Amino acid sequence: MDDIRGMVLLLPGLQLLIDVLRESGWTVRGPTVRDGVVVHAEIESVDQLPAGVGDLQDGASYRLRERGDGAVFGYVVGPQGWKSLLFPSRELLWSGHRTGTEVDVEPADVDAPRLALLGVRSCDLHALEIHDTVLAKRAVPDAAYLSRRENTFIIAVTCSDPGGTCFCVSMGTGPVPDKDFDLTLTELVDQEGHRFLVQPGSDRGEHVLDELMTRAVGDEVLNAARTDRCAAALVGSKAAQRMGRSLDTDGLRDLLYANAEHPRWDDVASRCLACTNCTLVCPTCFCTSVEDVSDLSGTQTERWRVWDSCFTNDFSYLHGGSVRPSVRSRYRQWATHKLASWVDQFGTSGCVGCGRCITWCPAAIDITAEVGAIRSGEG
Amino acid sequence: MAVNESARSRPKLAVWKFASCDGCQLTLLNCEDELIPLAGAVEIAYFPEATRAMVEGPYDVSLVEGSVTTASDAERICEIRKVSRRLITIGACATSGGIQALRNFADVSQYRSIVYAHPEYVKTLERSTPISEHVSVDFELHGCPVNSSQLLEVLAAFVQDRHPRIPSYSVCVECKRRGAICVTVAHGTPCLGPVTQAGCGALCPAYSRGCYGCFGPQDTANTQSLADRLRVLGMDESQTLRIFRTFNAGAEPFRTESARHEEVAP
What we know:
The structure holds 2 protein chains of 2 kinds. By secondary structure, chain A is an alpha+beta fold. Chain A folds into 2 domains: 7-86 and 111-240, no CATH class; 252-376, no CATH class. In chain A, 33% of the residues lie in helices and 25% in strands. An 8-stranded mixed β-sheet of chain A has the order 3-2-8-9-10-11-1-12, sandwiched between helices. A 4-stranded antiparallel β-sheet of chain A has the order 7-6-14-13, with no helix packed on it. Chain A has a two-stranded antiparallel sheet with strand order 4-5. Chain A is globular and about 70 Å long. Chain B is α/β, with parallel strands linked by helices. Chain B folds into 2 domains: 2-159, NADH:ubiquinone oxidoreductase-like, 20kDa subunit (Rossmann fold, 3-Layer(aba) Sandwich), CATH 3.40.50.700; 171-264, no CATH class. Helices cover 40% and strands 10% of the residues of chain B. Chain B contains 13 helices and 5 strands. In chain B, strands 2-1-3-4-5 form a 5-stranded parallel β-sheet, sandwiched between helices.
């Protein structure tokens, strides 16, 4: 543990970090409370962070709660992943103009702002890695995603208080960020005070820490003591013991392949609303549709790419009809792709155990319970 | 003469009204910036809400607002169908019978005697019915009222001889795409969004209100499961019955769901 570089920031030190990033041209996106939920927004001041805000999450239920300790990262993931920033819900691909019989096609400008993402949880880091594989490492990379991804600075944070629907430990994706970040924070609130252990994960991160040390005028930035590192290690190990859900992944792919006709799919279909919420809050779901928009004169047209979902009827529409007209087939497709065929397709599970699909399903359908029922042979 | 020649080459549009509040026709008039291009793309041949000038049929496309509630309505829609190459119904009244279809669940003579001083002058049918129960319809555009962008898309699709790009998935898709917070999960507010067709842009949920189902059922509406959830959120049988009995009370999935709660409501 002693070989890991690190510093300790007090809350003014966290503000200094935000200032340094902003002055270096990064727009900081971080957590804040809107409409009773922790969402991400542009952050200029630590005052915008959800101080003392925690949450209670269960199937179809999310409520904020008062923690009473002033922690700014004491909440669990909200409905928005970082997906909407790097892979927007609606994106112009190209526009076209017709003059007589001539058609001019103009590719859309890629909007790739320099974003510093503050407070990325380990589950979401793994989701980003999955999106990198799916979107950027395929034969023809998604150029817009790639440019946005390259313009991203990541400040991860160790989850200290996992929620009722979390199961990252089962998926091997958390709760302690282990890779793919520029900086990682562990928030400490104890008798030593409210502070953040910050450690670099990249050269860019080290430069920012050097800058912080240079800029600090008081005790808002300190060298990390051994006790701080020990306290930080405990935050992660305690969190790992407190997962709200678990999923037995042993032989999961083969289990689902072998149970394509299991009666549980009918049971879940009777509850599933086919509303698409699970897929749209999922940080790894990446399905889209393209929509062509033309004006009344038929001279101007635009092609937009929009988030789609395997839960809509039109998603599987081929000539003559939908391949998955039943909700049973749609839920089975989603769960089996996420947990089984994703492994064959991309080399990892498509689930990072963030629990969003459980919390934000209006019908309280729980993928860990559905898979558990199939494993136990329940109908 | 040149102007008239070009007018003749444009498809002729007619807009018809049946039992309705005129809100969907107003949506067309409210298109403002698009009205001039629209008048360039089609000849507005019959639209009494907008102009007294009327051009004789037949018409290339008829937009029909409102439901059939009288015997003369039932005859008139057949005449309109005969003079219309394409017939598109717009709004909850035309596509599902509208709020006036509440009579379908009650005794219309009783309603009439409560509402009118001289009910004997009012001639009306027992049921309010969508246009599609009377004539064949080429496309149904949902909404109470319809969304202006969707209406223009339907007209553009007609002019360009292509299928309209009108999604039939749930309001939840629009909620999540715009980053609106789920009012059911985060606030415990009952919401019909999961069973309602998109089109409004998730207007109510974006302002922290539950969806009222203005756009009618989505293509895969599991109303029974949603009703189970509404009960968990504290709605009793009569409230559940009522939430499914508004502007689209006559739409089949909403009608059957409300009937299910009628049997057990006190």
